[in-house]
Amino acid sequence: MPLDGIKVFQWINELAHPETREAALLELSKKRETVTDLAPMLWHSFGTIAALLQEIINIYPSINPATLTAHQSNRVCNALALLQCVASHPDTRTVFLQAQIPLFLYPFLQTTSKTRPFEYLRLTSLGVIGALVKTDEQEVITFLLTTEIIPLCLRIMEFGSELSKTVATFILQKILLDESGLSHICQTYERFSHVAIILGKMVIQLAKEPSARLLKHVVRCYLRLSDNPRAREALRQCLPDQLRDATFSVCLQDDKSTKHWLQLLIKNLELAAVQPTDPRQMGMSPLTSQLHRLDLLAFCFPFPLRDFDQN
């Protein structure tokens, strides 16, 4: 066996021992993209996944109150990087979901501190979920829809850093691209309005601080929502004005795919046929106007209002 292979097995064995675990986490996290079968090795080796989960659980007391240090964050993020490796591999993804390991990461996604250790922790946790949805497998979406991942992503989309917002929006986009995900979000007015309000806030913020990378995912979410008849009817009224005019023309001048998606969105909504602006909205801020229009459109979703995360 090559020397590198021997070292990988040695580091995996060292994960079982608290005194050698930190160094082994660091070395294995560096090798996660170069060792082809690292995920099965991690999953099937005795006590390894338990050791990684212990690293995660050990950080919980540092979340509330928010006392997480950079050293703690780096260490647990190395453990999360190995879990992302397991989540990405086709031979371990299903058992990873069956063990409900993503749920151990949700407390990290609920944090609100904007310090670098917490931001790094949220971003790495999002990376694990992003690795799951990137596979476009039905079992992933089915699992996520039974959890609170959508409201967690929406919170990060509203308050996170640009990079965290981008990954969270990508996850929402992947959920929407699945038929069951689109149906779930558009099942009730409350679910749809929650998503639409956050997307609208993001558009308004992007108009002030443009990011082509983030805007791409926002537009793609809107376009997918327009595939649902009730959501399409609502979006005709509540789509932010910044997506109708030339606000993002400079930002998207080199992004042909996003420009195409935006044009397709506008075509789907047939914005030219929309009724004149409600005079009661005159003088309102863009966000207030959007909320008002959403409030008028509850009839598009003839279902009882329920909490976002209920079935």
From TrEMBL:
GO terms for biological process: mRNA catabolic process; regulation of translation; regulatory ncRNA-mediated gene silencing. It is found in: Cytoplasm, P-body; Nucleus. GO terms for cellular component: CCR4-NOT complex; cytosol; nucleus; P-body. Gene3D superfamilies: Leucine-rich Repeat Variant. The lineage of its organism: Eukaryota, Metazoa, Ecdysozoa, Arthropoda, Hexapoda. It comes from the Eukaryota. Keywords: Activator, Cytoplasm, Nucleus, Repressor, RNA-mediated gene silencing, Transcription, Transcription regulation, Translation regulation. Belongs to the CNOT9 family. Its main location: cytoplasm. It comes from Glossina fuscipes. SUPFAM superfamilies: ARM repeat. This is CCR4-NOT transcription complex subunit 9.
